[in-house]
Amino acid sequence: MTNPETGPWTRVETLAEGQAVLVRVGGDIDQGTVATLDEGLARATATSAPLVAVDLHEVGLLASVGLSSLIRVHQRLGEDGREFAVVVDAEHQLSRLLWTTALTRILTVVPSVDEALARAPRNPG
Question: What is the phi/psi pair of residue 3, to 5°?
């Protein structure tokens, strides 16, 4: 899934009228590429959005350093009273990884971007 010329990628999108930020990630995330994931997550957490979601549907490999990045963001957002959701459907290989490592007990894992965005607070008015 990683393009040999460009490597892994992240795209940060502000959605749900500013109430959520979505980080879409693609490629393989390992020791050599985790900085790309960290940069995308840092841009997302720098916003004031009450919900940050990371979409892993296009990730092929997520090594332990990538899992650690997700845990750090979850903790940081929790300290700020914000929410973090990981988007990966049950059929994706990463779903099994999250379950096997018991991270489904710590992280909010949802099967779709729509379900993640439904967790965002609604704009008043």
Answer: -75, 120
In a domain, 4, yes or no: no
Domain that holds residue 77: 9-117
DSSP secondary structure of 10-45? EEEEEETTTTEEEEEEEEEESTTTHHHHHHHHHHHH
Q: Band the pLDDT of 50: cuts 50, 70, 90.
A: very high
Q: For residue 3, tell me if it sits in a domain.
A: no
Domain tally, the chain: 1
Separation of first and last alpha carbons in the chain? 42
CATH of the domain at 82: 3.30.750.24
Residue 123 resides in a domain: no
Alpha helices in 1-125 (DSSP H): 34-45, 64-79, 93-100, 113-117
CA 30 to mean position of chain CA atoms = 15
* pTM for this model (two decimals): 0.88
**Higher-pLDDT residue of 107, 11:** 107
